[in-house]
Predict the structure.
Amino acid sequence: MRESSPADLVQLDDVSWLRYLPSFVSTDVADAVVEQLLNESWEWDGGHGRKVSWYGSFRYTYTGSDHPPAQIPSCIADLLGPVSAAALGYDSSPYDGVLLNLYEDGNEWVGFHQDDEDSLDTSAPVGILSLLSTRTILFQAIERAHGVLALSLEPRSLLVVGGATQQYWKHAIPREPTCRTRRVSLTFRRGSAGPD
Ligand SMILES: O=C(O)CCC(=O)C(=O)O
């Protein structure tokens, strides 16, 4: 397993890359977002082992879950501009969907998967904003030659998952029993249908 320090650009292979932006949001913004989101409704995703919540202008369906469109709460709407600018650039259409993940502690997890459903614009990088605890994300090449990369997702960081990563790599948040506190992640996505 390769270890990666929080560097800006991680090239996974010729066409797949990650960009890690530490301290992307301030502690005040992070605290306010957590306070609001923990009061929203969450559902247990039994296919994996954590709670999720979906907000977006399009229906997001993946194995075992079907999320109808739902209005994006104000605290997330305020982040759409800055996260879209950092992850997609100023000239692109902004994100229009956010899947939230809530891990009560290190016993909760998400197994290896790709974010490549038909409802997503897979040409748009996915942006992962991490809040509260640090957890490890693993990237595993589908062609084993490239191996597994482990990256620490620190609170308030933004990880941009770009290029062909969703095509050639799976990712997971593994169990980490030494972590005894909550983590919330906001995963910003763009729908395949484009803006209304
Ligand atoms: O919690 C995370 O950082 C990633 C969750 C994830 O893999 C996903 O939402 O697709």
Observations:
- Confidence is low (pLDDT under 50) at residues 1-6.
- Residues 99, 101, 110, 115, 128, 137, 153, 171, 173, 185, 187 surround 2-oxoglutaric acid (CB under 6 Å).
